[in-house]
User: What shape does this take?
Amino acid sequence: KAGVTQTPRYLIKTRGQQVTLSCSPISGHRSVSWYQQTPGQGLQFLFEYFSETQRNKGNFPGRFSGRQFSNSRSEMNVSTLELGDSALYLCASSLRGGVNEKLFFGSGTQLSVL
Amino acid sequence: AQKITQTQPGMFVQEKEAVTLDCTYDTSDPSYGLFWYKQPSSGEMIFLIYQGSYDQQNATEGRYSLNFQKARKSANLVISASQLGDSAMYFCAMREGPGNFNKFYFGSGTKLNVKP
Assistant: This one.
């Protein structure tokens, strides 16, 4: 079974630009969540999608958005990039998001904003 | 208050020895799950072990065991017989209640170095 796939692996953008990151969950997994990892703030929850609906959101500005498609694949978008958006963005999937379900993570997209 | 606290930024352990990584958590929800993940330099988060708040026994997964002390709100990871490949960042995480789905809280991590 293929794992969680994130593309691209690396991205370099400049301030003010926008970026779209992609995530394909494990086959059969309907919950996809996104996390931002930085040296200063650690791992922080961005949002979660289930059956094409956002059902949970972290404390990030509206510049961060996402969506999920009918095949459970998900994208996240960051508009008007700021230097502080430089981070490793991790996507994770699970079957439904039940209490005892573990998250399966992708290798992440390393975003650098110059 | 921090939901997950890991007080050891870095640790060294000799190969083949056991090591304990500390984790304390803060929640008022009676139903929660505690997880440990390993993150090698490649970046991918690898699941190690899970403990549910209602589980009576400490969880074990091969060389990994979780020392769960509910009254103290601690969930320490014990790695027995350390191997060089265990060198990585280790994160403790918590999911609260059934309604939070996949909103996890992570600690700041512990960098483990295994010495030959």
